[in-house]
Specification:
CATH architecture of the largest domain: 3-Layer(aba) Sandwich
CATH class of the largest domain: Alpha Beta
CATH superfamily of the largest domain: NAD(P)-binding Rossmann-like Domain
Structural class: alpha/beta
Strand content: 15-25%
Distance between the termini: 25 Å
Shape: elongated
Order of helices and strands: EHEHEHEHEHHHEHEEHEHEHEEH
Number of helices: 12
Helix content: 25-40%
Number of domains: 2
Oligomer: single chain
CATH topology of the largest domain: Rossmann fold
Radius of gyration: 22 Å
Length: 336
């Protein structure tokens, strides 16, 4: 068993982002320093300011890392990703190394799962039409009924989950409690079925899921196998009254194919929180579809975000110092 660590180590926190919520708050840093006084807790909002601390940092809390930065981090032993996604870290030098990679799927999963259900209810009950009508001061009761597709009852419908990680498992429990049938695809279908899931198919059987589901929710990690997963051929397998929901990664949906599918109304509609390019360009044709609900990659936004981050990271830091197994360890070869 690994022996507990006693000597001081450097923990480097660097989160560079235009959106303030994704930056490490001051109280987070102060609380770490108070709880771990023997450690060097170093914090910056951008990598340019961290150049002098890269070489001797043993623990890194960040959202991304370039290969050239990694090669200069000779003391690095553990990276904690502030995101659930880790594809940005999976360059060959890091994958081949002994550096441990953990992610924040436990942090984001509960609130992202709630967002999936919010999108599902919104499209099922035609809330976007009601909102548009409200801005026009129009009583749209007849339109809600007459304009296809018809409003749907969620109970008794079928949810198809693409991905059964932390988000997928939370969604499955929520959907099942509402009386939905939940089916899913994942890379290893032989694993024990999570609570609330009625059937699990192999990824090669995704067409079986698409042909049955009233709602298809994408919550899978971005890997070579899931990039461009929902292309024209797969979209054509969906039921004509079905909805596509994506909270995974924008690159998993062929946006041109989806635009054509929505334009020709081959499916009932879609709800997207993630896009190939973010922010979504103002001239994107996706803005123009009345059967597409867009949210601005806001599924993970919550007032509890950094409290969850602190609980996971501080617990893992205690485990690391004690030589115990870490939570949320990522398989660098599988990408999740």
């Amino acid at each position: 068993m690994t022996q507990p660590r006693h000597e001081a180590i450097k923990v480097l926190l660097v989160l560079q982002h235009r959106f303030d919520l994704w930056k490490v708050p001051a109280w987070f840093v102060e609380k770490l320093r108070a709880e771990f006084p023997a450690l060097q807790i170093v914090h910056f909002d951008q990598y340019d300011d961290a150049e002098n601390d890269i070489a001797d940092s043993e623990v890194l809390f960040t959202a991304s890392l370039h290969p050239d930065q990694f090669l200069r981090m000779k003391s690095l032993r553990w990276i904690h990703a502030a995101s659930a996604a880790v594809h940005q870290f999976l360059f060959p030098e890091l994958v081949r190394s002994d550096v441990i990679l953990t992610n924040s799927s436990e942090v984001h999963a509960p609130v992202v799962a709630e967002h999936v259900m919010a999108l599902l209810f919104a499209v099922a009950k035609k809330i976007p039409l009601a909102v548009r009508s409200q801005t026009e001061h129009t009583w749209a009761q007849e339109a809600v009924w007459k304009e296809a597709p018809k409003p749907m009852e969620v109970a008794g419908s079928t949810l198809g989950l693409i991905g059964l990680g932390s988000i997928g498992r939370h969604v499955a429990r929520m959907a099942s409690s509402l009386g939905m049938k939940v089916i899913a695809v994942r890379e290893h279908p032989g694993k024990e079925k999570p609570a609330g899931v009625d059937a699990v198919y192999a990824t090669s059987e995704i067409d079986r899921l698409l042909e049955q589901a009233d709602f298809v929710a994408m919550a899978a990690p971005l890997t070579p196998a899931t990039g461009g997963l929902m292309n024209a051929e797969r979209l054509s397998k969906m039921k004509p009254n079905a909805y596509l929901i994506n909270v995974g990664r924008g690159a998993q949906v062929d946006e041109s194919a989806l635009a054509e599918t929505l334009r020709s109304r081959k499916i009932a509609g879609a709800a997207l929180d993630v896009f190939e390019k973010e922010p979504l360009p103002s001239d994107s044709p996706l803005w123009t579809f009345d059967n597409l609900l867009i949210t601005p990659h806001s599924a993970g936004i919550t007032d509890k975000l950094w409290f969850r981050h602190y609980e996971l990271f501080s617990d893992n830091l205690r485990r690391y110092l004690a030589g115990k197994p870490l939570r949320s360890v990522v398989s660098k070869k599988e990408g999740y």
